[in-house]
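Hi everyone, sorry if this is the wrong subforum. Our group has a chain we'd like a structural model of before ordering constructs, and none of us has done structure prediction before. Sequence below.
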Amino acid sequence: METIIYIIIFLIGAMFGSFFTLAVYRIPRREDITHTRSYCPKCNHKLGFLDLIPVFSYIFLGAKCRYCKQKIRPRYFIVEIVSGLLFVLFGFLLK
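Answer:
Right subforum, don't worry. Here is the predicted structure as tokens:
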């Protein structure tokens, strides 16, 4: 049961990591970070639900955009993983 809780904590952390990368990309460009749908920065195609699952989408899509097949930078994947692991670490330390 404890393992399931840590998996959930990891997924929540990965979602925050995904949002962090979105914010870091959009804020300097003065783009909206809350009301505009996510899109591929190369082809500007709006991403669907399955394209936005942190960590898993990157792996299952082979680190490429589903629509234009351009490579997705690994830093997005790394930030999501590190954020998820940090959340798990904090959860473990608060136990």
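For your construct planning: Residues 52 and 85 are 19 Å apart (CA to CA). The chain has a mean pLDDT of 95.
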